[in-house]
Write a structure and sequence with these properties.
Length: 820
């Protein structure tokens, strides 16, 4: 059975709990694969802490003692929690003894105030050594045959401390020899090795544990290398810079190498070579989401749907350009340039040369800027004096982006699409290079354009798992807050089923407002609003929304305000869609209705208001599909008030009308002043909207309300006075209900529209009438049309309540999201 090599990075082994998680994974892997070699990093942050310690010591700052103590404390804490009291006490002395040499060395550094790279390598080696030792001890404690491997015994390198070169001829047989027992779980240190002659500790470069694991895998001819980290594999881009980055299922070795070379930290660049040479499949997995398949890196990455596989970037880059008339046709210029750069130990990240041979441009790290300048100017001193070549030009503070993928070969138009995208976003490209393998296009942009460039290119080339839709929410009363709660509760299913991520970038109540480019946290938006320093103001709210300039934005008006709809035009003119339960905009004058509808059509920007009528019931959308497909609506009859409906559905001769109104009010079914419902004003607004959506030109005066209430009730100064007046009317209501009961009829508050006239009135209906059987707070809309002639189309269901209204609003927002 071939061995399998697993590597766990710093975050995977950050503390005792995580080491237990790691050992669970190791144990289940052992059951499956029998022979295992596990390579570990230091607990996360330890390498930095040790480097900080030695740096403090070097500059003779006594604080080195504090950071050293922090390190030791962490090691003991982890050991104690992981191993429990007994095992911990059995190894405690060994742990302490191990650190004596470190403590002495640091004291020496503090004394002479000097720490060479060699010293630093020795100091940081303690990070990996402690971690591997503790994990091996823990597995032994659990009864496994497990052995600690100090990689300095087997990985032999040259003396380039800090980033040593591995001698594979010496290393391979040593690994084979020391890891020969197939039944032992070997736990080896990542990152470190030793100088081949002296045996002095070396390191393989920051992030080098990946490389160590690849070295073990190659030497052992492993069946696979698994790199366990804290993300679901290699993602399409750095998730810290591109939020929509997602896991790439497969990559070729070449693609993976390019990604890591161009800054994808998930894999240390040298890692690929040893596994590629031995053709060892390499899998990047997430310790915290082991079910996820991660990324498989192997010879031939199949099943790739996209043209490009990934997008990477390197920050802090300087472009160095050498140009001048004396360069043309003169052999050896490029050779001399690269030689002097190499002599200065400067790494070249990218090269471009114009075919006129008039200039050569290379990209290097900002850190090497000064050294490159002096090396080049010295090398070409003579030519510069003779004005054949200009003094070298340097432009720092840039960023390199690389678009990577094997499928780019033979796919025309990639560069076109790439640069068109950058152009559209107003991003200036400073230099471009494409390797002849067509595996990679690299270009330089200003550092400040990095995020926009990465995200724009990502949007253009990758099919996102989900679309981010930016919401600007005004009004967080009952409906607004219920909407947000439903967004939180249904977050995962919305993402999964609608492929949409809803983000609130602006929110306002009547007092304060709050904005965030990254999204306001929905969990505590109320507290955040309370602490916000920005007072509410619709104009300023809209200014900010326009300024944020997100691609897919929806303005959600959850208020009943008359003022906010006055701004709808400006919002739509700025390409922002609107979704609202506020009835004012569409039920005001017909000219306003027509203007808003026309603007929405001309700008191709949705203005949706399904919840204006019947809460979550699909009323407006049904009317729209009827009229859109050529049907002609002739008549609408409807019970449109949930609260009035509740009152009449429960009215019998055994109850007093006034008591019932009070009960409905106490249940929160009516407005605070129940006259708003009983007057029929709200029903009228809904009827206006229904009639208009059915294709009629209707003004307010075309609909007559036959009021339920006496004039005295309507004119009463307060709600209390209203109830006093209503009490006086008790006999009148009693008479009405007795009459209805005698005729076996029900009282219903019905709105109807036909032949250009609308009425809203209380009617006594018999059992043949469709409204007869209504119950609870049901709404019912009966539509007569040329198609639904003999039997009308009926929509019935709960037509009031925050839950159904908010759900209707959420459904509307999601359906709008798909067309934005
Ligand atoms: P480990 O400690 O396991 O070695 P690293 O921190 O070295 O982990 O690498 C994993 C991190 O690399 C991720 O958490 C992520 O932030 C970063 N990263 C950068 N680019 C990419 C990418 N293209 N795909 C995945 N992760 C990336
Ligand atoms: N611990 C080392 C570092 O932080 C090596 C690694 O984690 O890969 O660089
Ligand atoms: Mg790493």
């Amino acid at each position: 059975m071939r061995m399998r090599v697993l590597k766990f990075g710093g975050t995977s082994v950050a503390d005792a709990q995580r080491l237990k998680l790691v050992s669970d994974i190791v144990q289940s892997k052992q059951k499956k694969h029998k022979s295992l070699c596990v390579v570990v990093s230091a607990f996360s942050g330890m390498t930095d802490l040790l480097l900080q310690t030695v740096n403090f010591a070097q500059s003779n700052e006594t604080s080195y003692k504090d950071t050293y103590d922090q390190f030791i404390l962490k090691v003991h804490d982890v050991a104690q929690e992981l191993l429990g009291r007994d095992t911990y006490s059995s190894i405690k002395t060994e742990l302490d003894d191990n650190h004596v040499s470190l403590q002495n060395l640091l004291a020496g550094v503090a004394l002479i105030q000097e720490a060479s790279p060699k010293t630093k390598d020795y100091v940081v080696s303690f990070g990996e050594r402690n971690c591997a030792f503790l994990l091996a001890t823990y597995l032994q404690m659990l009864g496994h045959k497990s052995a600690y491997i100090d990689a300095r015994k087997v990985i032999k390198t040259d003396g380039s401390y800090g980033s040593a070169i591995v001698d594979f001829e010496l290393t391979t047989p040593l690994i084979k020899k020391h890891l020969s027992d197939k039944d032992t779980i070997y736990i080896a240190t990542g990152f470190i090795g030793s100088e081949k002659i002296s045996g002095v500790t070396t390191t393989l470069g920051r992030g080098g544990s990946d490389y160590s694991a690849a070295i073990f895998a190659a030497a052992l001819d492993a069946s696979a290398l698994e790199i366990w980290t804290d993300v679901d594999g290699v993602l399409t881009s750095d998730p810290r810079k591109v939020k929509k980055a997602y896991s790439i299922p497969e990559l070729s070795y070449l693609e993976a190498a390019e990604m890591s070379h161009f800054g994808a930290k998930v894999l240390y660049a040298p890692t690929i070579r040893p596994v590629k040479e031995k053709n060892i499949p390499t899998i990047i997995k997430n310790t915290f989401n082991p079910e996820h398949p991660g990324t498989l890196i192997h010879h031939e990455a199949k099943d790739q749907t996209g043209i490009i596989s990934g997008l990477s970037s390197i920050n802090n880059v300087t472009l160095v350009s050498l140009q001048g008339s004396g360069m043309q046709g003169v052999p050896g210029i490029a050779y001399r340039l690269f030689k002097c750069i190499a002599d200065g130990q400067i790494n070249v990240i990218m090269i471009t040369q114009a075919s006129s041979e008039h200039s050569i441009c290379i990209a290097i790290s900002d850190n090497d800027e000064k050294s490159a300048e002096s090396h080049i100017n010295k090398e070409f001193e003579l030519e510069i004096q003779q004005r054949l070549i200009d003094p070298v030009k340097l432009r720092s503070g840039l960023c390199l982006l690389a678009v990577i993928g094997e499928n780019m070969k033979n796919s025309p138009g990639v560069a076109g699409k790439l640069f068109e995208t950058l152009g559209k976003n107003g991003i200036n490209v400073e230099a471009i290079a494409q390797g002849s393998s067509e595996l990679n296009i690299t270009f330089a942009v200003e550092q400040e354009d990095e995020s926009q460039a990465l995200n724009a290119v990502h949007d253009a080339f990758f099919l996102s798992e989900y679309k981010t839709v930016h919401l600007f929410v005004v009004g967080i009363g009952l409906i607004g807050s219920t909407l947000i709660r439903q967004m939180i509760n249904n977050h995962d299913s919305i993402r999964k089923n609608s492929k949409v991520e809803l983000v609130i970038n602006g929110i306002s109540n009547s007092k304060k407002m709050l904005f965030s480019e990254d999204g306001v946290s929905m969990d505590n938006y109320k507290e955040q609003l309370e602490h916000s320093q920005v007072s509410a103001g619709i104009e300023k709210f809209i200014d900010r929304m326009i300024q944020m300039n997100f691609a897919h934005s929806i303005f959600v008006d959850n208020t009943a305000s008359k003022v906010i709809p006055e701004h709808y035009s400006r919002i739509m003119e700025n390409n922002i869609a609107i979704s609202t339960p506020n009835k004012i905009a569409l039920s005001s004058g017909m000219s306003q209705y027509k203007k808003l509808k026309a603007l929405s059509g001309a700008m191709n920007i949705p203005l949706n208001f399904e919840t204006n009528v019947g809460a979550g019931l699909p009323v407006i959308s049904t009317l729209k599909s009827l009229t859109m497909t050529g049907d002609k609506i002739s008549k609408i009859q409807a019970v449109l008030s949930g609260s009035v409906s509740y009152i009449f559905n429960n009215f019998t001769s055994n109850v007093d009308f006034m008591d019932l109104v009070k009960e409905a009010q106490e249940k929160g079914l009516t407005e605070p002043d129940p006259r708003e419902d009983l007057s029929g004003a709200d029903v009228k607004r809904k009827m206006l909207i229904l009639a208009r959506e059915s294709g009629f030109d209707v003004e307010d005066e075309d609909i007559e309300i036959k009021s339920l209430l006496s004039d005295a009730c309507i004119n009463a100064d307060s709600v209390d006075d209203f109830y006093k007046e209503l009490e006086k009317d008790t006999p009148r209501y009693k008479e009405m209900i007795l009459k209805a009961e005698a005729a076996e009829e029900h009282l219903r508050f019905i709105a109807s529209y036909e032949n250009g006239r609308g009425t809203i009135s209380l009617q006594s209906v018999d059992s043949q009438n469709p409204f007869y059987g209504l119950s609870g707070s049901d709404n019912m809309i009966v539509i007569h049309s040329s198609r639904y002639n003999d039997t009308p189309l009926v929509i019935r269901g709960p037509g009031a309540g925050a839950e159904v209204t908010a759900a209707g609003l959420l459904a509307e927002i999601l359906s709008m999201s798909s067309v934005l």
